[in-house]
């Protein structure tokens, strides 16, 4: 009997469903857990060998070695932006042409621009990605398999990949990440991503960090409830990681902070003038904008 024909991926040495994860922090660890739970073969690499060994007990199949990189159908770079670029630069020649490489970072321009160039030169596929989920905690110990269920995933394809080719590539990525349970994939450019994420994520962390610097922080016990908890939750963060993200998106974030400072000053001026009419107008405007935003989310 004739043997079944091998697919191009199989001929290249890629093992269907095999995944390599670089970085076992909160995001990388959660992706590894989700894929492993679904029966995918996951190999991982982390700067902390103890984390690698711990993950191998319950989640991964072992260490992602250079020899295994070329057998992975999906490679997930879940480290700091600079680390993602450095890894791809050093290992691009080992990645199969039939694989997809993604990152998971919170900024895209500083990662996608060099990684697109590296991928083109090596003849491989790189997509910038940003899972829109997480917690105020970091590290593998806080990762979990259901972290991304229902969460959006932002995808930034190379600019030369368009039309049907882009749709097919994103559809393939969605299949590879299906066990993670992402609810919606949004395709955009690195520039647009960084512009919007400065408002939806980074600004919230800056505001929360600044908010807890009030002297009243030491006296809030017994006086705080949901509003305080909501506003201070993300003040607990990884300073080194968020510093890198903020600086990589400094132009957009500084602009958003300027807009916020201007808005806060208008509230401050109304309060100092005891101007009830103006203050009511400002509050009503905010209420109206938020209600409109909620209606759009429901559509």
UniProtKB/TrEMBL annotation:
Biological processes annotated in GO: tyrosine biosynthetic process
Keyword set includes Oxidoreductase: yes
GO MF annotation: an example: NAD+ binding
SUPFAM superfamilies listed in its UniProt record: 6-phosphogluconate dehydrogenase C-terminal domain-like, NAD(P)-binding Rossmann-fold domains
Oxidoreductase is among the record's keywords: yes
Keywords: Oxidoreductase
PROSITE patterns named in the record: PDH_ADH
InterPro entries tied to this protein: 6-PGluconate_DH-like_C_sf, NAD(P)-bd_dom_sf, PDH_C, PDH_N, Preph/Arog_dehydrog, Prephen_DH
Residue intervals of the Prephenate/arogenate dehydrogenase domain: 17-299
Superkingdom field: Bacteria
Family: Belongs to the prephenate/arogenate dehydrogenase family.
Protein name: Prephenate dehydrogenase
Native species: Thermophilibacter immobilis
Lineage: Bacteria, Bacillati, Actinomycetota, Coriobacteriia, Coriobacteriales
């Amino acid at each position: 009997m004739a043997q079944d024909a091998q697919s191009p991926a199989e001929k290249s040495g890629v093992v269907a469903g095999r995944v390599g994860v670089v970085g076992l922090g909160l995001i990388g660890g959660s992706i590894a857990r989700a894929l492993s739970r679904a029966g995918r073969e996951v190999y991982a690499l982390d700067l902390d060998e103890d984390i690698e060994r711990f993950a191998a007990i319950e989640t991964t199949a072992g260490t992602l070695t250079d020899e295994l990189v070329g057998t992975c159908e999906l490679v997930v770079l879940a480290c700091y932006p600079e680390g993602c670029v450095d890894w791809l630069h050093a290992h691009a020649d080992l990645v199969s042409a039939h694989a997809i490489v993604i990152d998971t970072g919170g900024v895209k321009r500083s990662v996608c621009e060099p990684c697109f160039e590296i991928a083109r030169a090596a003849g491989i596929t790189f997509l910038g990605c940003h899972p829109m989920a997480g917690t105020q905690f970091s590290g593998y110990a806080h990762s979990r398999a259901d972290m991304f269920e229902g969460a959006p995933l932002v995808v930034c394809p190379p600019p030369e990949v368009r039309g049907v080719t882009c749709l097919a590539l994103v559809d393939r990525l969605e299949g590879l990440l299906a066990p993670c349970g992402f609810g919606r994939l949004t395709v955009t450019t690195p520039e647009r991503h960084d512009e919007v994420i400065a408002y939806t994520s980074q600004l919230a962390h800056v505001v929360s960090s600044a908010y807890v610097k009030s002297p009243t922080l030491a006296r809030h016990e017994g006086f705080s409830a949901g509003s305080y908890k909501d506003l201070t939750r993300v003040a607990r963060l990884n300073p080194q990681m968020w510093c890198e993200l903020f600086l990589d998106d400094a132009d957009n974030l500084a602009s958003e902070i300027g807009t916020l400072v201007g808005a806060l000053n208008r509230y401050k001026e109304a309060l100092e003038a005891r101007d009830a009419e103006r203050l009511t107008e400002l509050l009503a405007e905010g209420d109206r904008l938020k209600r409109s935003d909620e209606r759009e989310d429901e559509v």
